[in-house]
Write a structure and sequence with these properties.
208 residues; Rossmann fold; five-stranded parallel beta sheet; four-stranded mixed beta sheet; 7 helices; 38% helix; binds adenosine-5'-triphosphate
């Protein structure tokens, strides 16, 4: 059982929409207010990645067992590796009294809606696919193939983001300062109203 505390915050959006940039800014400006949920993964650590800091690195057998025992809030498989948010990763942050921030994909968002986590759901929308492509190219982390895959996935994610009821707010990240202030304002307005409004499919909705 995930223990109660401030309402967690989910950031979702296509790769390159600016989730990490916004999140880093939030954690830097308010280190005592927000804490990042450390995901599990079965992929190998990259140079410089620390176990328990960037990810909890684990094996497929161990993770599959933990999932089986109901220890995960959401999981997804990407490029043959499992990723997921454990209940204890969220509890670790909530125990400190901080707002737990989760950076998860759409499949994870769908799963989270069936738990008692009751997070604020924020979708970060890129201004356009063309701009998303420009940013991903400028970030210099993609090759032709991964760029194509990310853009293909982005089109589906953008549709999901636009669908009414999937998120509490859709923030267009055209201007970074504006997107950041929209995010802060939304959190400030909503974190005291625990569970009063949930988009469709959330645990408090009537159609679930
Ligand atoms: N408003 C903005 N204007 C211009 N560039 C931006 C803006 N927001 C973010 N960027 C840049 O776009 C790139 C993608 O941003 P970021 O890495 O935060 O995306 P992401 O959604 O976290 O992607 P991923 O899911 O792949 O980690 C980065 O190089 C970032 O500096």
């Amino acid at each position: 059982m995930v223990q109660k505390g401030p309402r967690p915050l989910v950031l979702c959006g296509p790769s390159g929409s600016g989730k990490s940039t916004l999140l880093k800014r939030l954690l830097k400006e308010f280190p005592d207010k927000f804490g990042f949920s450390v995901s599990h993964t079965t992929r190998k650590p990259r140079p410089g990645e620390k176990d328990g800091v960037h990810y909890h690195f684990t094996t497929k057998d161990n993770m599959a067992g933990a999932v089986e025992r109901g220890e995960f809030i959401e999981t997804a498989t990407f490029s043959g590796n499992m990723y997921g948010t454990s209940k204890s990763a969220v509890d670790d942050v909530r125990r400190t009294g901080k707002i737990c921030v989760l950076d998860i994909e759409i499949e994870g968002v769908k799963q989270v809606k069936h738990t008692d986590l009751d997070p604020l759901l924020v979708f970060i929308m890129p201004p356009s696919i063309e701009e998303l492509e420009r940013r991903l190219i400028a970030r210099n982390t993609e090759n032709e193939e991964t760029l194509r895959k990310r853009l293909e996935t982005a089109i589906k994610e953008i549709d999901f983001g636009h669908e009414p009821g999937n998120f509490h707010i859709v923030i267009t990240n055209d201007n970074l300062d504006k997107a950041y202030s929209d995010l802060k304002e939304f959190i400030a307005q909503n974190n005291d109203n625990r569970g009063e409004e949930t988009p469709d499919g959330g645990q408090n909705s009537n159609d679930n």
